[in-house]
Amino acid sequence: MAEPTTPSRSRTSQQAPPTTYPRASRATSKPEFDSGLHDDRSKILLADTPRYQLPLPVFLNLLPRASAASQLDWSNILAQREYADRFDAAFAGLPGTPTYDSKRHEDEVFHGIHAVFDTMVQVCHEHRCTGPKLMYVSRPTRSPGNSTKPDGTKPDGQLCLPDSEPGDHGVYPWASTFGTAEYKRENTPKSVKDNDGKAQWGLGNQLWQVPDRLIAWAFTIEHSSVRWWIATRSGVYESSRFDMNEQRHHFLQGLSSLAYATDQELGWDTVNMDRPDVDTPLYKAAEQQARRFQESLPHEHGATAMRPLTITLIGARYLAFSLIADHRARGIEGSGCRVLAASKLNDDDSLNEKRYAIKIVWRCVDRLSEGKIYESIMSHPQHSSARPDDVQQYFVKIVQYQDFQDIHEKILNGIDVNQAVKIDAVSSSTTFRSESAGSLYSSSRLNSEAPGPREYTPVQNRVYSITVSEYAGRPMHHQFDRGKVTSAYIGILNAFRFLVRLKYNHRDGSPGNFMVDDKGLGRLGDLEFAKLFGGDVSTTGERTGTPHFMANEVYSRQYLFTKKASSEEPPPLRHNPGHDLESVFRTFLYQLLLTVNRVGGTSKQSDLQREAIHTFFGDKGRLPWGSHQPCSRLRKVFSSEPEKQVLTIIELAVVALHEAQGEFSDLSVEQQSAQFTDFWLPRVDAVIADFKKIGGLLTDQNTMALYEWRKREHVEEDNESSKKRRK
After folding, report:
1. What are the residues whose beta carbons fall under 8 Å from the beta carbon of 68, sequence distance 6 or more?
2. Where along the chain is composition biased (Polar residues) (predicted)?
3. Residue 475, SS3?
4. For residue 398, what are the β-bridge partners?
């Protein structure tokens, strides 16, 4: 590999975190997934991500333009014999050149990009350009006699920080990656498809692996055909093709623009976020906070140590020290939501010990911010008869929020995206979802912007938004005490009661959005998709809800319990509180299956539990409400008399909810709006009463019923197999 030029940098060195961190930092270690599943996940990411092609001249306007190198006229430079000869020598051996040898290994052929990059840097230096900021590296290949296989999940080439250190097998971490490259010797449909998948895999990992990454860059080459790529939370844009040899100036323009770009142009949030240097007091404070966070909350299975970030909002600074959740950031398109644990910084950079949760999203421009929704609920005139604390105690408290530029203004430089041509998605037969692209699928990490049997219109523009909440405790699915879980649900239902009084629908019921504080009180969180009831139907096309926990009507996008004549044209589905309440029961059934504490239980118990949860809630086994079938299946698991009584209560309650949903949907829109609170408030009170009954039936200890049932089932299977063998 040619020795890269070491430039000066403004960005803090991205060094590995101390080994005392409770877990490896997401930003410095390879992803926590089985690379053997890489191909499947790459395919589903490609299929799920909206992709557009821009004419090359339009795309070139997206490239970084702040550096002197980006302003060089490469056409004029290449017209000069001296430079033309130097670049002819640099490009020699690459596809499309006279010295190209098609028999050479692909990795050897494209190793020549090093010479192109180094020559470009030398020419920029001769034109008084300071830098570059980045170096070019390629994935190590298997040397003769070496059995170590290269990491196939890493790109063929990377633009990295010059002082980056390679990790396992000599590959560089995503945290140090500012752009990726994928190469194929041949320009065939298969080669193009392979590069498409690999390019989006690299773009997705750039966005996912680093919390302060806003956009990602890449380029692909098939033989000598080049495309430039940029990924945003609205999807992926690629340039039209150009030939690397015949239009060499375009290739050098893109390469120099990226190599000399500012951190912000390369995709980092340098306005609101900064990285404390290693060995500084802030870094050490973050290390201590992360360790304490992990030790005090052992059930936070999603919590991962991360490289510390200082996050600045109007009038406040926070130190983020641990990653709580980022499953919605694993796909490319979408809100890219991630939640970080943080402490507030005092003026002297000392830490306020109070914990906060910082939520970072790219919100659809047509949707209200979560902070504004929260404020409208807390300040509503309907609360005049109640003390503020009476309302706030049932919700996760939002203390600060701020919106920033949207994608069109911040990233796409205001270009006319109508010039973009939609590229048809590649179909995939895999069962993974894009938010699972970088990790093993877990039914406890479900996507609020999830797929379902519905038409989907990609959201073209999103607003970058940061929301700060008081840390409310543990999510419901990290609770294993049935008595305490039932009590916490009553708090959640009281929050829904307030929403009904204000004519709001929550629209995203899931265990991850139901929090339990240190006093055991349930608090409703994630108001991101909450919406005031009205005659309008959402036009954003954005997916809301978690499939496992959606009400039947919401999942199917049609009224199922109406008594109107079927010959009538069905009206568009509008979310109502009955759907939210049905989601509550679905999440509670899920909680009944969480009978094994994964920290204290054995791995076998956890495996059996996971298998059963997939049986009842997996993509192929979604419980079909509308009959007694779901609870009859659960009776095979829960055989004790109290458990049977609980299931009976749930069955009757859901039947009543379905009747109410049908009755409400048969009203006119005007009647629904006028009768909303009076109609649904008694139904909420009835569900609260049901949960009080359930609380009296369930004990306050972890039951092993599920484990025992699964064990008995396996014993019966083994006995049956033994009988067959004896015969």
Report:
1. 124, 127, 128, 129, 130, 260
2. 1-18, 140-150
3. strand
4. 469
Spell out the residues 6+ positions from residue 107 whose beta carbon is closer than 8 angstroms to its own.
Answer: 138, 139, 141, 156
HSE-CB for 382 with a 13 A CA cutoff? 14
CB–CB of 328/362 below 8 Å?
no
User: In the structure encoding, which two tokens stand for residue 593, read together?
Assistant: 């299956």
Q: Could you give the CA distance from residue 504 to residue 530 in angstroms, rounded to a whole number?
A: 7
AA letter at 719 = N
Residue type, 158: Q
Listed as own residue / partner, the contacts of 141-144 with beta carbons closer than 8 Å and 24 or more positions apart are 141/105, 141/107, 141/108
> Side by side, which strands form the sheet with 514-516?
474-475, 514-516, 522-524
Lowest mean per-residue pLDDT among 337-351, 438-452, 570-584: 438-452
Q: Are 128 and 68 in contact (CB under 8 A)?
A: yes
**Domain extents for the chain?**
39-141+156-266, 473-527+544-727
pLDDT tens per residue across span 597-637: 444 455 665 665 566 566 666 554 455 554 445 555 566 66
Strand partners, 52: 237, 422
CB atoms within 10 A of CB 6: 10
Given a contact cutoff of 8 angstroms between Cβ atoms, the answer to whether 538 and 531 are in contact is: yes
Question: Which fold, 473-527+544-727?
Answer: Transferase(Phosphotransferase); domain 1 (1.10.510)
Buried b (16+ CB within 10 A) or exposed e, 629-665: ebbeebeebbeeeebeebbebbbebbebbbebbbebb
Does residue 701 carry a pLDDT above 60? no
pLDDT at 74 over 70: yes
- Give residue for tokens 């936070």: 300
pLDDT, greater one: 541 or 72: 72
Query: How do beta strands 235-239 and 216-222 pair?
Result: unpaired
pLDDT digits (tens, 9 = 90+) for 469-506: 999 988 998 887 888 899 999 999 999 999 999 999 99
Asked if the peptide bond before residue 547 counts as cis, ω within 30 degrees of 0, the response is: no
Which of 76-80, 138-142, 280-284, 326-330 shows the lowest mean pLDDT across its residues? 138-142
Q: How many helices (H) and strands (E) does the chain have?
A: 21, 21
Residue 337 has pLDDT above 90, yes or no: yes
Residue 609 confidence (pLDDT)? 58
Q: What is the mean pLDDT of residues 438-458?
A: 36
Look up residue 162 and give its amino acid.
P
Task: Return contacts of 480-483, CB within 8 angstroms, 24+ apart.
Answer: 480/299, 480/594, 480/595, 480/596, 480/597, 480/702, 481/700, 481/701, 481/702, 482/591, 482/592, 482/698, 482/699, 482/700, 482/701, 482/702, 482/703, 483/695, 483/698, 483/699, 483/700, 483/701
- Answer for the pair 317, 297: CB distance below 8 angstroms, yes or no: no
**End-to-end CA gap in the chain:** 67
pLDDT in tens, 203-212: 999 999 888 9
DSSP 522-586: EEE---TT-EE--S----S----B-GGGS-HHHHHTS-SS--S-TTSPPPPP---HHHHHHHHHH
